[in-house]
Amino acid sequence: MDNKVYTLEALLTELKGVIKDSFPDARWVTAEIAEVKENQKGHCYLQLVERKEEGIVAKLQANIWAYRYRELFQKFFTSTGEPLKVGMKVMLLVTVDFHEQYGLSLNIKDVEPSYTIGELALKRREIIERLKRGGLLDKNKALMLPIAPQRIAVISSKQAAGYGDFIDQLTNNVNGYRFKVRLFQSLMQGDGAEASILEALGAILSSVSEFDLVVIIRGGGAALDLSCFDSYELAAAVAAFPLPVITGIGHEKDDTILDMVAHTRLKTPTAVAEFLISGLRAFEDRLLEIYQRLEAKTRGYLWNEQQRLERVSSRFIYSAKNFVSASRNRLDLLYERLYRSSGHFLEAHSLRLDKLEQALRLLSPENVLKRGYSITTHKGKAIKDISILRDGDEILTQLKDFQFKSIYKAETKKGGKGVAKTVGPNLFAGID
Amino acid sequence: MQRPLDLTYLQALTETEAILSEIEAQEVDIDTLAEKVRRASELIAFCRARLRQTQDDVDKVFTEQ
Question: Is the ipTM of this complex over 0.95?
């Protein structure tokens, strides 16, 4: 043991020398940034750590002097698209410094962005993998876009030029469509943006029935830090959101994870507005088409009905007339049959009558006389019984062309009853 | 028998067609023919009026747009 007594300064000065001798050159070191801040002079102060499963296993201050910082920032940002920030893994070229008052620290001379890019890509892949495992990657995409979305919840920063563009575009659309837009203010970049957007989503969720979809937009100004859009929590919240989420975050880089899980991803706020307008235009076109089809169908239907009615009507007139004339014909036929049959009937009867008449005529006395018979009468009565005659009675005998009178004298000869003696044979000749 | 005004267009048309086929099949009584004809022409007039009214209404709807 050295028995010499040092002052603190002397001790630390010696220590400083030892460190300087042991670490003469700059070295590459990897670490995670646990804290980062700039002061007014433009120097950058960082807290570097190394984590293992059990927690932080190493920790040290680091700084970048202002004259280096500007250059390094530019280099780093150009490659990674992000500034140095908390949680980021970095590879740094450092010298080990010791100061008697401020202790041990690292002075950063250079930075290797490709290391950070690799780390970021890895982290990003992990997040995507996690979302995929949770079934979240395509969850919001599976939602149906409303037919004509007009009630829009916007998450943006009111001052952002992108928000102004979006509102202008929506309000002044040539078709005159009206949108009901409500802004949910949020930080759109840097630390706190993630929490702020999540809060805005929560606010929308509490009145979710008032909206058709959610729009997340930012734009205008340089995109300093978009890593908030690569966070798992935000992506998960958007993916599981009950309304379709449309992004217009406005950046040239590859899609952020937020874009990946969104229902529809567009480049700029203006593009989002145009998308909404074209959706309504498509809807209106469809309505018009339906309307035209309706009109054509209706007119066609009415025309058919009219034709049908006219057909029925004319068939009807025809058939009613037909019916009447058919009935009339039937009547005429009946009449004719009646007429004819009654004619026959009468004819038959008259023939019969004729026959009767004829028969009758044959039996008439005249005809009897013609056939050579004679009729003998006494006092106008035909003599059918001789016993009515007395001797001396005058009897009249009538033949066909003449008659004569006789005087009756009874004789008993040959059993006869009497004999008429003709008085004057031609007395009444010619009398008929 | 319902008054035509209480019928729908389709009911009126169906009834007319029924009467028509009765007449065409000569299944009608001469005694009732006049009555049937009167009924059917009443129904046809009703259908025509209803159709014209509908046409006017439709025209109005489509020209208002």
Answer: no
